[in-house]
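Hi there,

I know you've been waiting on this one. I reran it after we fixed the sequence typo, so this is the corrected version. Both the input and the resulting structure follow.
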Amino acid sequence: MRVSPTDMDIVPTYSPSGRVSEQFPILRGTLGNTEQFDKAVEQVFEGIDAGSIRNVVLQDAKFILSRIVDRAWDEYIDVAYFDAGRWKEQPKAVQALHSSILIMGLHDVISANKKINRAEATGPAVEAMRAFCAEVLPLSLAVASLKDKVIKGRAPNTGPTKPENPNKITKTCAVCFRSIAVQRGGKMAHHGYKRPQPGWQTSSCPGIRFKPLEVSSEGLEWLIDTLRKELAGYVSSYDRQDTYPEYLLAKRERKGPAEKIYRDDPLWPAIFKRHVAQLESWIERLKREIPNLEKKLAAWKQEAPA
């Protein structure tokens, strides 16, 4: 078993502005524009230096960083080592380790790091997980260390005042798990949403139909049921690949229009191979995601009334 320092041995540190790229190459490498990320990091470590941070600043920074961490894990670990059929190439111990980890934000990196350090699994995928945690863990711990340094309310406004809703309440969306305002009637306000698979982009997250996760598990139950049906559809398509589909949409030229490519077309083998690889990737991802959501549902408890 690999011997590593405990979380408490890792002291969150941060160099002055301008050196963020040297400390977070993995996270920044997934971004087209790093401005939001760099600002969020600076806010976190400014809070540590000052010994305090406004709650609204911390929550905004945590949301931005968690979203980026989620995306980076997907690209740096899932896509590189487990998607598109690569899951089957991994040793059983690596598969088991990866299945035990669910990265949806900063806080998840702390528990993931402990699992990786305890694991007997070895190989490139595990080393990539270690590298990811080595970069992100100090940032996760930095945010966690600010929990008892929060100042409620916003900083005094020196400019023109904006009217604020004193009755605004934010809670967790039961489908995308983001902190979203709650409307009158108890359901979530409209907010954008896109799952990492085709067919899921919507004008608003389906979570607007449900009460917050703190109040009801109905939205989470719907999500699990929907993903199970989606998985069954992908598995059915994969099992019937000898005859299904009859055709696929593809471009013959890079800038040309999409057209129906049938099985007797010379282009069919190449695009069908890509189609099957996508099915395998989606099936593998859902088989990992659904059990984690089922664990979340099993552990769900209704929030005590305020």
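Quick highlight: Residues 1-18, 196-201 have pLDDT under 50 and may be disordered.

Best,
R. S.
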